[in-house]
Amino acid sequence: MARMLNLPPSAASLTTSLRDLGYSLETAVADLIDNCISADATDVKIIFDMSGTSPVFVIIDNGRGMNEDQLIEAMRHGTTDPRKIRTRNDLGRFGLGLKTASFSQCRWLTVVTSVNGIRAAAEWNLENVERDNAWNVAVLDSEEISSQPYINELPNSGTLVIWRDLDRLFEHETGDKREKIVYEKISNVTRHLALVFHRFLA
Fold this sequence. Notes:
The protein is α+β, with helices and mostly antiparallel strands. It is built from eight helices and six strands; from the N terminus they run H-H-E-E-H-H-E-E-H-E-H-E-H-H.
């Protein structure tokens, strides 16, 4: 009789592969906004902050938010059954969008979410995944949550997504050339979102 072996994928190798599934910056941002709409958000803020030494890209919505258990499940790769019947506004399908869209642009993804003022947060840092070759997601404590960028803009119920270590955005450029590349990419994002989400725009 054949023996059954459990062969989980290499965390380090698979996350590297997932970074190259063909996302551009604009399609990655659109995937995250899909999640906001699925969570019944009526207001979505997009912030790109280059003011510090470590730029951050932030999306904040006023949707339903998640409790800690729901957040941890959302951070799992392949969390959603694609065969499941979905509501009209639920645009996700394979449970990969948040993670793969984010990893296509950054190496450090943090999600802070709130339901009626009760916050939870978790993050994937690819440096840790590659070092440990393990699917270890960090669940943040209250002190770590309070130190997150733009945390004061998170509504009583809603979600804050933070991209850091934006290695794909700058294309290893510095100075004026880097700023030009970023400006062009942000302009592409603006045009793409206006086209894709025109029926949701006020």
